[in-house]
Amino acid sequence: MNLELLNNAFSLVKTPLLNGRYITNSHIEKCFNSYKKSRINVLGKSVENRPIYGFKFGTGPIKILLWSQMHGNESTSTKALFDCFNLFEKKDILVNSILETCTLCVIPILNPDGAEKYTRVNASKVDLNRDAQDLSQPESILLREVYNDFQPNYCFNLHGQRTIFSAGEKNNIATLSFLSPAQDENRSLTPNRKVAMTIISEINDLLQQVIPESVGRYDDGFNINCVGDTFQSFGVPTILYEAGHYANDYEREEVRRLMFISILKGLEVISKGIKEDKHIEYLAIPENAKCFYDVIIRNVRLCRDDRDFLDIGIQFHEVLKGGFVRFIPRIEVISKLIEKFGHKEVEANGGVVVVNGNNEFQEGSEIDFVLLNNEEISLYS
């Protein structure tokens, strides 16, 4: 796939009704009139009786199951999916081969209760991505029933990632991360794992043209309670997508575009047939590390008598207020952060920092503003 063509397509099909971080059933339902009614069905209900929707595209023999918002507060891939749906509906030349060779079963919001409350967990406070064995929740049971009925050849497990992650132990943001999950304690490179790795390698080749050194590889520690690990253990190549951070993109609109590109590229690789074993290249993708804070204020003094210079690491905490996600700065650590990086960095040069009108602040404090040498400093980029 050509990046220029994909970017042009995105600008034409981006769904205007879906924006920002808060995406719920009521948001996606406004998009349904854009699609044939036969594509959409209610697969089941959540704990709080909200519908869980499924979409079908394509007519080919290769079956691919995709699901998003298993964690209710991870909405970027849901936006990207609806952008893909618009392209599928147009029957654009970019996706004709995908739709002819593949049948896609898509669950855009698996956890509608968590989406409504903007929480990771469902209404029973269960992490659905740790419920693959117990199947204690209706959403988990539904996903397994869809899996059993559809019998996919491939699975795409679409998630979102916090701003703390880097691609390797460097000052490289993990804008997108991927994983071919392990399927046993030994993390064996089974044939289906290698296939998933090869697909990711192809996606990475394309992404390096637009976000060089900003693609990460998620930790593959085995946990059979995770859905990806379970489906991989069934012998079905499964790919975890993680939508991360891009500079100044807290609403995840640039990352949405990159997810759109990555989903389509993964589907294209499958549709054309996986001929080349590139799994070794997957292992060269740098593993995720936790190297970032949203803001670091460097070389501060906590009071005028201090001779030691410290750094203040600040993280934005996402809070749902009035139907919008607000980013609340909170002091995470006061220390020397030599091997850490900030998405925004402020150099204090030994100046005294005042937080919320005083210098009696500590780790865990929520911040309204920062004064540095009596000058108000914005924490936002």
UniProtKB/TrEMBL annotation:
Domain Peptidase M14 residue range list: 15-267
One GO molecular-function entry: zinc ion binding
Membrane-traversing stretches: none
Gene Ontology terms describing biological process: proteolysis
InterPro entries: Peptidase_M14
Protein family (similarity comment): Belongs to the peptidase M14 family.
Full protein name: Peptidase M14
Organism: Winogradskyella endarachnes
